[in-house]
Amino acid sequence: MVQPTAVTSGWPDDPAPLDLATAPVPEYGTGSLADVLPTLVAGQGAPGFAPRIAELGPADRNCVFLIDGLGWEQIRSHPDEAPYLTSLLGSSRGGTGRPITAGFPATTATSLASVGTGRVPGAHGLPGYTVRNPETGELMNQLRWKPWTSPKVWQPYPTVFQRAHEAGIHTAQVSSPIFQDTPLTKIALSGGTFHGRLTGEERMDYAAEQLACGDRALVYTYYSELDGAGHRFGIDSDAWRGQLMFVDRLVQRLAEQLPPRSALYVTADHGMVDIPFDDQHRIDFDEDWELRAGVALLGGEGRARHVYAVRGAAADVLTCWREVLGEQFWVASRDEAIALGWFGDEVDERVYGRIGDVVAAAHDDVIITASVNEPHESAMVGVHGSMTPAEQLVPLLEVRS
């Protein structure tokens, strides 16, 4: 494990960059996505686990329904489109009416790995959308798994599902068939049986059936289309609101079919923010000579960037990024981000070099695009990744039978 170094300063006096201590670090160990499954299986008697989210009570049968892109603030802002979800807000986090945190960065690959392994990003090793592979020097897209990298080498820890299955808990994942054989599924969500179902309604019905298949059961199901609508059209669009209405009905459909002694938990991998298409809110790295100076690779995504410097230039890149972006982004060195706990309380040796020499997390409504190298991502309306409440806070809604 890498031991973090002390946080140092050295910022220029003018302009004053954001104080790194003001970044709202995820609640690793007590209230993050990485803590959900270990808490649930501890309550089911699986050896080697202890409850981490103190507010959650045990249940014999647990179902986790993860809705991609369904942030806490988005539910609260749309009571008309999501009446059932809104009615469950008070149940969140064991009846406290509070959200949990996704983890940093608040992005799908990182969050799903945190959910499935029960480990923080610094341990499971998926600390961003794209990160540098220290073995090859190339950027690795951890959502699309390109270029190909051995999944077991990249993420060697067993999943919570695998350990629960070995403990005699009936374990199943119910999702779209397209996810069955993906590397991300293999390293984050494998264990027990995978059941591919095409429609959302089919997934809800079959998840309920799987819950009833054992005296102790752990079932995971997933819906991605809300996130897709947010990226393409934004969360202030009719398309996104229509998806939210559909999601609301799916949750109610599943809740009404729970077998006895069951708990349903509705959560998400991140929230989302819409970013206007203008130069004030979208800074194009590919067109900005100051930000490009000394940079070998630009990783991460628009609101959570990993910046990899050419040899010997890390300090200069850090200074430049703070001078240019420090009033809008929390800009940290790798060791500062680690010491502050952005990636959790542990960072494995194999993961250390995957984290950028500089890590930039958005504070304001702004993103760093890359119009040449990331044309698809640069065209997105809704985005996520940073530690702001709209991105970081996710529900843990609960229904019990």
Quick take:
The chain is of the alpha/beta class and 401 residues long. The chain is built from 18 helices and 18 strands.
Main traits of this protein?
alpha/beta; 401 residues; single chain; 4-stranded antiparallel beta sheet; 6-stranded mixed beta sheet; 18 helices
Describe this structure in words.
The structure is a single chain. This protein is of the alpha/beta class and 401 residues long. It is 31% helix and 19% strand. It is built from 18 helices and 18 strands. The strands form six sheets. A six-stranded mixed sheet has the order 6-5-7-1-8-18, sandwiched between helices. The termini are far apart.
Q: Proportion of β residues?
A: 15-25%
Which secondary-structure class do the elements indicate? alpha/beta
What fraction, in percent, of the residue positions are helical? 25-40%
Q: What distance lies between the first and last C-alpha atoms, to the nearest angstrom?
A: 42 Å
Largest sheet: 6 strands, mixed
Strand order of the largest sheet: 6-5-7-1-8-18
Low-confidence stretches: 4-12
Number of helices: 18
Please tally the β strands and state the result: 18
Rg calculated over all Cα atoms: 20 Å
Average pLDDT works out at 96
**Shape descriptor:** globular
